[in-house]
Amino acid sequence: MGAEIVEIIRHVLRDVSSGGLEEPRIEESDWADDPQVLSAMIYSIRDSTGQGVSVKGDLPRAEQLVSVADQVQEWVIEENGPTNSNWPQCPWHPNNHPLAAQLVDDQGVWACPVLNTPAALIGELSQKGLDG
Known about the structure:
Layout: H1 2-18, E1 25-28, E2 37-43, E3 50-56, H2 61-80, E4 100-104, E5 107-112, E6 117-121
Helix pairs in contact: 1-2
């Protein structure tokens, strides 16, 4: 079951790398100690500090993706400090807040939390967004 969450994390990491940020190292880990929860660890390449990522195994895939994207976003912001506290950057409010992982029409998207407007599918930030 660890492979499932690693696959989801890798999907989200496409957005991390498209933003020119360093991807973490991923390790399968049953740290949640719950058979209903998929869990893994992500580690900084720089100093090997880690953060657990987990999601309920019985959620629909899109909901799992949104949850994992939210956790990876938290890691990116903590790992990169003030220089990337606004990742991923909202195209409508670039200096105010980052995009938020949301579920829209059964798809995981990065959306403006103020306008509730999707900017891109999770995993496709480097592309032109939902219509591209």
